[in-house]
Amino acid sequence: GFYGARPGYAFKLGARGLGYYLEDRATASKRHDLEKDGPGIYPASSKPVVEETTRPSPPPHEESGATTTSSSKRPAPERFNPFDDLPPPTKSAKTTTDKADRSHPPAMPPQSTTRPDVRVFSPGRFEATRVRCLHVVRKHRNSRNPTTWRVPGVKVSRSVEDATAEVAEMRRRLVAAHDDSDEKRRAAFEALARLKSDCTSARKGGDLGFFKRGTMTPAFEEVAFRLQVGEISHVVQTASGAHLIMRIA
Prior knowledge:
5 helices, single chain, 4-stranded antiparallel sheet, two-stranded antiparallel ribbon, rod-shaped, alpha+beta
């Protein structure tokens, strides 16, 4: 029968019958010299072929029952086993499952029906599609609309430098006083926005609600989306004035 393929051998009907024939002549010759080869192919000059020698027929006066021929052979080389250098087959471990387990499969955890506000840009990297922020803005005389809701009809006279310095000082005090708690920092930020912000969002503690990209001015939006939840930005300059931003979601 056919015993399967073995790397380096061809199972075929050759000059020495049906068997495994080494396809590499150099390897075949080496195996034959070590007397480990069975049927194979090798150069005729590398090893003499084992032949039978027959003695001449005995003279007529020998008994007719005597042996007329005798064979003188070299010890036959050991026939190789084409699988002797292969690892033994491993028995696959069968997992036994109780009938009760098969009839009652484990319950799957409930799946959430809400979609998270994230999208995948590359493996392991996520970016929010919308954020929620608080902010404080101090306008100056170079602002796009240099007026404040606090004093209607009166233009703001402070300089860019003064507005920037005020916002920077606000940040320093917020971080120094409430660096241990996001809740305390948020409460202090909302109180500061109600007291100092020139935006009408001050009435809501500076809360701008959720917004997506493309809603705010580019400079403001870039910083807002880069912040971590609970983090307060440095001074952000836009055409409206000098801002302080805190992301809350």
